[in-house]
Design a protein that fits this description.
By secondary structure, the protein is α/β, with parallel strands linked by helices. It has one domain: Divalent-metal-dependent TIM barrel enzymes (TIM Barrel, Alpha-Beta Barrel). The chain is 43% helix and 15% strand. The protein is built from 10 helices and 8 strands. An 8-stranded parallel β-barrel has the order 1-2-3-4-5-6-7-8, surrounded by 7 helices. α3 links the parallel β3 and β4. α7 runs parallel beside α8. It is globular, with a radius of gyration of 17 Å. The mean pLDDT is 96.
């Protein structure tokens, strides 16, 4: 099991200059970095990979970012933009040395509508078709797309493990798996630990996020239950802290971070990592 940190806690967008964070991540004891790539043109992937290698870190995953302009169930233009973007991330993954491209790949974040059942079915079919295409692209390059269910306030499309597994079943590609996030599961699942077990071999990536987006362990997530569920699955992939603060304004607005959740941002990463290593290993 490798432990990583999502770059959104410290910067947006991630650029070549953001590699200045790597020595700090290494000093805290992280194995790797989940790099949020808002615009592929913002970074030289080969340069970033060299800096990861220099500091003894790996890229655990590429975090996809899906504003209104990238939406697999949106307008034709939004759908094309999202597909082109996902292809670029898959190509970039090979350079950065990761197998995983992850996120709510099915929709723009924040799009939450009460559409009639026939419209939801139409959107589902559209997304399924696009995911078949991008997963074929990923499979040919030996990469994995990890689909992330989000809570009801961030999407109306895929909120639960069951919905995610249904999409995986219908796409029917070994390149499509689940990214499970304890923050979202704490809202949407009756029992997050049991949801992890139900997901089983579909789990391809994991976010250890506090229930208030603060420090893992300083919250109300049933971490012992989560730890046992991951052990039951013999999960040995990456566990990534994904938290947000007011310091990164763009992400704070998107994630509805309206107040100071922890006294020190660095503690979310450093103290959260200590807790996770003690609890999950």
């Amino acid at each position: 099991m490798k432990f990583g940190i999502n770059t959104f806690l410290f910067t947006s967008p991630f650029t070549n200059a953001s590699v200045r964070l790597f020595p700090k991540f290494k000093a805290w004891g992280f194995d790797g970095v989940e790099i949020a790539v808002e615009n592929p043109a913002d970074i030289d992937a080969a340069f970033v990979r060299a800096q990861l290698d220099r500091h003894g870190l790996v890229c655990t995953s590429i975090c996809g970012c899906f504003p209104a302009s990238r939406d697999l169930r949106g307008t034709k233009t939004q759908q094309r933009a999202s597909m082109t973007y996902l292809e670029k991330l898959v190509d970039m993954a090979d350079i950065l040395g990761t197998d995983i491209v992850m996120g709510p790949v099915y929709s723009a974040v924040g799009r939450a509508e009460a559409v009639p059942a026939p419209e939801y079915k139409r959107q589902w079919q559209t997304v399924r078709g696009h995911l078949k295409t991008i997963c074929a692209y990923a499979e040919a390059r030996k990469k994995i797309i990890c689909l992330e269910p989000l809570n009801r306030f961030e999407t109306d499309f895929i909120n639960t493990v069951e919905q995610g597994m249904q999409m995986i079943s219908e796409v029917n590609s070994p390149a499509l798996k689940l990214l499970l996030d304890t923050f979202h599961m704490n809202i949407e699942e009756k029992n997050p630990a049991e949801a992890i077990r139900r997901a089983g071999k579909c789990v391809g990536h994991f976010h250890a996020s506090a229930s208030d987006r603060g420090t893992p362990g300083n919250d109300n997530v049933d971490w012992r239950g989560v730890a046992q569920a991951l052990r039951d699955l013999k999960y040995d992939g990456a566990v990534v802290i994904e938290s947000f603060t007011q310091d990164v304004k763009v992400i704070a607005r998107a994630a509805a971070i309206w107040r100071k959740i922890e006294p020190r941002r660095d503690d979310i990463a450093s103290e959260g990592l200590k807790f996770l290593k003690k609890t999950l290993k």
